Amino acid sequence: MQIVDFPDYTKYKFDGFGEEGPVRCIFFCEFHPTAGPIISCAEPENYICKELFDSISVYIITKAELQRSTITVTLPDHKILGFPIRIDDKKYARNAFLFNLCFICDSNTRTVHYEPVVTKLSDYLTAMEFENSFYLKKIKL
Q1: CATH architecture of the domain formed by 22-140
Q2: Which GO terms describe its biological process (predicted)?
Q3: What is the SS3 string spanning 93-107?
């Protein structure tokens, strides 16, 4: 019988077993009717480059099967957590408004504790859109 030294396994980071760490960036992205997926707002700005966003946007602005579910995209340097939303209504171009509010953390950061936050913020933005049409008002400015 071989005894395995358990602490040696703690060197390896697996999703859900990583270290707690800060949110490095928060960004709001949407599917623009003519430009496609874009980042509308980010803090700090330009934290994620356009080329990187373009390469992963299919996982951020998702198809119907993944909408209203927590998604995590793990990259070599970053982990992106989001909760994609689709609001169907004829008042929008293409009859729908697709968006996602995302958090970016380091790739070895444990993000499961941020899931309820990103979900709640996405639900809050959805309610704001239903009640006040904040997105449509922004477009008309």
Answers
A1: 2-Layer Sandwich (3.30)
A2: negative regulation of TORC1 signaling
A3: HHHEEEEEEEEEEEC
pTM of the predicted model as reported, rounded to 2 decimal places: 0.82
Question: Block means of pLDDT (10 residues each) for the chain, length 141 residues?
Answer: 48 56 95 93 94 95 90 95 95 91 95 96 93 70 40
DSSP state of 108: T
**What one-letter code names the amino acid at 85?**
I
Single-letter amino acid, residue 84: P
Nearest to 78, CA basis, from 99, 98, 60:
60
Structure tokens at 92: 């929008």
Complete DSSP assignment for 1-57:
-PPP-GGGGGGS--TTSSB-----EEEEEEEETTTEEEEEEEESTTSS-HHHHHHHH
| CB 30, CB 37: distance < 8 Å | yes
Give domain limits for the chain.
Answer: 22-140
Contact between 28 and 101 (Cβ < 8 Å) = yes
User: Quick one: which of 39, 43, 58, 67 has its CA closest to 123?
Assistant: 67
